[in-house]
User: Fold these one by one.
Assistant:
Number 1:
Amino acid sequence: MPRPFLIDTDAGSDDAVAILMALRHPDVDVRAITVVAGNVPLPQGVVNSLYFAELCEADVPVYAGADRPLLREYVSADWFHGADGLGDWGDRYKPTRSQAGDLHAVDAIIEVARATPDLVIVTLGPLTNLALALRKAPDIVSQASRCIVMGGAACTNGNVTPAAEYNIFCDPEAARIVFRSGLPLEMVGWEFSTGDFVLSPDDIEFVRAINTPYAEFTIDCNIKGMRGYEIQTGEIGISLPDGVAMAVAIDPTICRRQSQHYVDVECDSELTRGMTVVDKLNLADDERNAPVWRDLLAIPRKPLICWDLDALRWKNLLYDLLR
């Protein structure tokens, strides 16, 4: 039986690839796509998500959710993904027949979770929708078998500030709620969207040669992001953090090394806002540190942190799903 997935997305160009991977995998049954403001404003994210489903001829409901962070001013990533989130191709990527569902995304998450034992939740954007769902219905924690979070950076630099990755930076209060919720979290940080994980010029040429609508879309919608990534890092290639996270969701063995650690999210400091503070040395378990980590010690479950992923296997999985 295919595994049931729920995908929460902010529908940018790397989200597009991740969602395409899930919709095309024979062992994945996407029960719902919920949309949050992030890479692009909410209405554009809904339009993009409807297009992803149409491209894959998938009968999957799409639900609009939170249009802003819990407490912060909304900050988009349109400089990287384009105003439409997909590289500014005008009307090229527009749905022609589908519409969003009537439920709010928060209620859709709750409804799907309660109806779906062993649900796999994959988050690709800010965690606002999921945080609101957990606050409204904390019982859904027990329904999820896994919750893969593309977000944060484990003991390394971020991509929005030296300390923070965009999804967590955008709504750190929501991220703190999710990381403290007891969900079976697996954190796939931004560090797995650089270096060997990036589609190189040779990889891009290889994908072009696959010559399917999925392969064409994967490259074309990420061309603007490719320029943004070069400006940001000096590397030439297409960075797909959401695609990497989806690869781990589909095939957990792609993560070659992971371990459980307490994680908290910085919400008070402007310098380190959105930093995912990973207790890599398990110092919180040392009674001498209890006063410092008192809040974290109340967390009922330590998230799994991915420390090492197989870049070649992630790319081969992507290629297979683009054919």
Number 2:
Amino acid sequence: MARPKKPEERRRIRDVAFNVFARKGLESTSFSDIAKEASVSKSLVQYYFPKKEQFVSDFIDRSLTITEEIIEEDLDYEFKHELAKLFAMGLAQFHFSINNKALDAMRMDILRDRGSTEVVVRYAIDWIFKHTTVFPLETQEEEDMAKKTIVYVIGGTFDYLYDCMLYDVDFDLDFLFFASTAIMKPYLTNPFGEAEAIKEALSPEWLDAALKKYNERLFVEA
């Protein structure tokens, strides 16, 4: 008879894994590292997470969900376009990822390794389609094409971030927004004109306070 899976046991292992990944990065963290930190056997870790990629899936899901919660709770802004909240989430997530010392090791792993980048992009897109109705698509063919387009947008963004880090130049958020919306334009039901207002609402002070709350929720004591 198979050992029953316990949601609370899985959550604890996941939370421990997130903390280890943050310190060591994805590539340098082994199942044994997670097991040692969680004071459980390696086999138990792999029982709940047979592949390391499943930790990445959980991390992306939790990260984006927390970002959405913080925006809904704390941002004093009324979204008018279906894409507006997703745009605000993208800006906030960008800030949390790039300016977050707690994620330095993980960020460099993702940018350095194409395989890790692909996994992160794929799970981010799954989250978008599962939790939003931004893209009013009627057929599977339309959804597949939209997902491919988003892969192109996010993948291009990662390439741009990597180049900026490699050559030590500042990120141009206006360029990223222009390029992304130009590519996604066919999937928007009406013009999206809230970008400037949202960027103003996400002030540096708001983002710094939100980053603190983000880390408190993401890296819980396990």
Number 3:
Amino acid sequence: MNKINWKRKLTSRKLWISLAGFVAGLIVAFGGSDDTAGTVSGCIMSGAAVIAYAVGEGLSDAAGAAATKESKRGK
């Protein structure tokens, strides 16, 4: 069985848009206002942007560290 690539999943815009839409739908379905659903969806998307940035920076830093280590090994 293949491993799940969590880094890729957590930075997927499709995942976050789907999650925001699902939560907004639940809020409206259970009697919440459209304004509340919009606010919660916006918060989810803002959080997704932070997560995507953090994961992207982590991957970039890891690649830079690996390149530095590899260049030191070659000397």
